[in-house]
Amino acid sequence: MPISNFVFIDGNNLHLTFIGLGIQLKYDKLLSYLKKRHNVTIAYYFMGRVPQNQHIYDALSSYGYTLAFRDVTKKGGKSVTCPVCGKTFEVDKGKTKCDCDADLVLQVMDEINNYDKAIIITSDGDFDNLVKKLISLDKLDMVLSPSQKGCSHLLSSAARGRIAFLDKLIDEIEKY
Questions:
Q1: Domain that holds residue 49
Q2: Any idea what the CATH number is for the domain that residue 25 is in?
């Protein structure tokens, strides 16, 4: 029977890391690379849903990603009250927040009997226990961190050498 590996992508972590690096990641090439180099048959992409980003979701779907959404919340906004009329105005909408970590972990565990090995794409140390569990079950292919810079030491340590960095692989990914 052919090998069937699944990839589970912390989408916000991947996206924001490459923006910070100033590198345009070609998501179609990334998926092609994962399919050909790692025998990936399903690629879950976890992210927040924001209506104005529908074109991004459409593109990712057209490349073959299986999208897993979470509602986005706003954190840290500020408002002021007008001293004249007493009406409250939002002056700082704050940052949007979407935490898909638990969803990703649940999907990895729910699907565990459906794949040979898992690939986790993140640099977030919150996934260290998941990585340790997958290793103990002989279900981890590898961790692909978006970048060594900013990759959690907890995650890197948990991976026990089964880690690579996408920013270092960008030239290879571009070939696919």
A1: 5-73+80-174
A2: 3.40.50.1010
- Full-model pTM: 0.86
61 vs 127: CA distance, rounded Å: 25
Among candidate residues 27, 41, 10, 20, the one with its CA nearest the CA of residue 144: 10
Query: What is the number of domains present in the chain?
Result: 1
pLDDT tens for the chain, 176 residues: list them: 789 999 999 999 999 999 999 999 999 999 999 999 999 999 999 999 988 899 999 999 999 999 999 888 776 656 677 777 777 766 655 566 667 899 999 999 999 999 999 999 999 999 999 999 999 999 999 999 999 999 999 999 999 999 999 999 999 999 99
CA 157 to chain centre: 19
How far is residue 94's CA from residue 129's CA, in Å, rounded to a whole number? Answer: 31
Residue 149: how many CB atoms within 10 A of its CB? 12
